Amino acid sequence: MIKAIRGTRDLLPPETATWNYVEAIARDVFRAYNFQEIRTPVFEATELFARGVGEETDIVSKEMYTWEDRGRAESDRGQSLTLRPENTAGVVRAYIEHKMWERPGVTKLFYIGPQFRRERPQKGRYRQFYQIGAEVIGPTSAGSESPARDAEVLEMLATLLDRLGIQGWTLQLNSVGCANDRAVYLQALREALKPVVGQMCFDCQRRAETNPMRVLDCKHPEDQAIIANLPRISQYLDESCRQHFDEVKSILDACNIPYVLNDRLVRGLDYYTRTAFEFTHGALGAQNAILGGGRYDGLSEAIGGPKAPGIGFAIGEDRLVMSIPETAASAVRHPDAYIAPMGPGMNKEAARLARELRHSDLVIELGDESFRLKKSLETASKLGARFAIIVGENETRSGQFAVKDLAKGEQVTLSRDDLVRHLQSIP
Ligand code: HAM
User: Fold this and answer.
1) Which class for 122: exposed (0-12), middle (13-18), buried (19 or more C-beta within 10 A)?
2) In the prediction, which pLDDT does 179 show?
3) Which pLDDT does position 120 carry in this prediction?
């Protein structure tokens, strides 16, 4: 038997109803904050991620699905392509390619779609997973660098999680500084790591060389005592980064958005500057980040664009769905009626009636003239339909239909005109 590849999965009903529910609420919230949708390709030039996300990150160095795409003709050159592991680099590429800075104000975009990382699959971690994300980007003159943008994005996320009924989330907040303070900090971190790194785990030893800030993110219990004594970026922020961060926090305070300062939060992508954040949720276990994001003031330049500071986030939709309270599953809409055609030639009549009822926004399931009445009624009940409508020769001729309330067992006879009103009545 051919099965879905490990780390990928089929999303089936009724669970897909919860996914649609989550996406509908997200779209509603994005609309209220004046974000518009962007859809970028699922594969891009490998170089975009190498330069955007960073060669030394786990994502780029170990987790990308990359292949050499052969040219179609002898004369065509091949090209290295990659399934997108995240969407920020693609959105910023599109921003540059379509000169979106020529549009008024800051550009506010959202996306919903699959991302691909070759990670070790476990609960809440897949190789094809889905993100709901948004980016705010633009020229400095449009206010893209303002801490007000950071706070607005965070407040929007709090609103979204609350509207989805997700309780007990925690906003973990940090500032990872900018190019100026980062250099001084990395120097201090390297110095502090030198005498102790030999006692740390293999991953930390590698990170100390390639990407020392990632050491702070190590989950290895034996390394924690050493990490607790390492210098933190918060002690090295320059005056402008400190002020920026203070302003983000003061707007959040003014809006009553709770947060926890976490100066070990460094995030796994290289483009971050200043504000970095994650929203975590206890019920998720080890993979407890529902979403992550932050500011990326130098990303556009890193991939060949103009200065265009930005901030954004991506929600792991798989994890978001896992955190949704049970009641949201009632978003599944069962059929309002099951039409049971009785006898030869009745499929035609049933199809006509179903067409009329569906035009009135009713959910209709259609049986088949070959089914016996008993089978039709049983099927209707199993599908959770509220009513069964019998369409036989007599009914068609008289225009009077037998309508059975499947929960109550009551049956009434109704004209075509009364049918819609009856089916739309509150149960
Ligand atoms: P990220 O932290 O790599 O950030 O991913 C964001 C979220 O995607 C995570 O918090 C998690 O919920 C979900 N996620 C990541 N990997 C997996 C996986 N293998 N399986 C299931 N869910 C996963 C980014 O991707 C950035 N582009 C976010 C961003 C946007 N920063 C600025 N703008």
Assistant:
1) exposed
2) 87
3) 95
